[in-house]
Amino acid sequence: MITVEGLTKKYGTVLAVDDVSFTASPGRVTGFLGPNGAGKSTTMRIMVGLTRATSGTVTVSGRQFSDLPNPGLEVGVLLDASAQHAGRTGREILTLAQRYMGLPRHTVEDMLEVVSLTPDEASRRVGEYSLGMRQRLGIATALIGDPEVLILDEPANGLDPAGIRWMRDLLRGYADRGGTVLLSSHLLHEIEVIADDIVMIGLGRIVSRGTKTELLQAAGTIVRATNMPALGMALHERGLVASPTGDGAVRTDADAALVGQVALDAGIALTELRAAEGAGLEEMFLELTSASQREGPPATRPEAAVA
Ligand SMILES: Nc1ncnc2c1ncn2[C@@H]1O[C@H](COP(=O)(O)OP(=O)(O)OP(=O)(O)O)[C@@H](O)[C@H]1O
């Protein structure tokens, strides 16, 4: 379990993390989602004691990271796969972790197998590794102490589609065995596929959080009619906000039953009526983080916690 309470980090005048609170629970994969510069890495660095918080607390399994006697046995961390010593081989890096944590020697070969690094690759210097190979080695280092909690910053970076599938299955299995996984990404689809719970952050603030199911339900309804202007008018008259989806339909926050009733009352024939699901989550992500999108206009920050 990871518990973040009122976490704030200022770098001079930059408010990188602004009063962030959330939990990541055992048995679940929690996706930490936000655009570039949202504050994900800073939050994770504070979690593992690499950056000092201005205020607020983070506990892992009830304790601060700095109070853990042998942290690698309790928390597996992958923050920057490129930070590994370029002159050492993959096997040497894992062996150092194994000795440092006081683990049996066979764990090194076990982990190489888990992350599918071949004996030949394990004997090569990390400086010659591709980014995907470095990520695999980083995940092996995070897992070697068999910790209960994993904190992974953009772990899918550099992995090919098969590698992403492999990582997804690995983390799923880890969570299903009771582990706590927190992983960050600026890619909605990645988080949507892998996470049970989602925490969205923008400009250092939590803009939404909840289970994926809740967020998908909260994503609204897609509706299409032969007479779209009449449908727009009918929804408007009932106080329902509808926004164009870009392909001729509209999305509204109302549930499908209400939208269907509104259309029936107005005598409008619908050609499509369905839960917005993934498309809606993407729209919500863009809406919720619009204040922090470099491409978007400045706006007041929304707060849309659903859990
Ligand atoms: N050491 C630092 N000194 C000053 N500002 C910093 C420092 N580290 C991060 N920041 C600022 O804090 C904010 C949040 O950065 P952070 O790296 O946490 O975002 P992120 O969500 O991880 O982004 P990305 O997806 O691009 O990795 C940014 O405005 C960044 O410029």
Explained architecture:
With 307 residues, the chain is an alpha/beta fold. The chain has two domains: 208 residues, P-loop containing nucleotide triphosphate hydrolases (Rossmann fold, 3-Layer(aba) Sandwich), CATH 3.40.50; 56 residues, Alpha-Beta Plaits (2-Layer Sandwich). 35% of the residues lie in helices and 25% in strands. The strands form three sheets. It has a six-stranded mixed β-sheet, sandwiched between helices. Strands 11-12-10-13 form a four-stranded antiparallel β-sheet, covered by helices on one side. Strand 1 and strand 2 form a beta hairpin. Helix 2 crosses helix 3 and helix 2 packs parallel to helix 5. It is elongated, with a radius of gyration of 22 Å. It starts with a strand and ends in a 19-residue tail after the last helix. The relative contact order is 0.14. The site of adenosine-5'-triphosphate has 12 residues, from strand 2 and helix 1. Adenosine-5'-triphosphate binds next to strand 2 and helix 1.
What keywords describe this structure?
single chain, 307 residues, alpha/beta, Rossmann fold, Alpha-Beta Plaits, 2 domains, six-stranded mixed sheet, four-stranded antiparallel sheet, 11 helices, disordered C terminus, binds adenosine-5'-triphosphate, transport, ABC_transporter-like_ATP-bd, ATP binding, ABC_transporter-like_CS
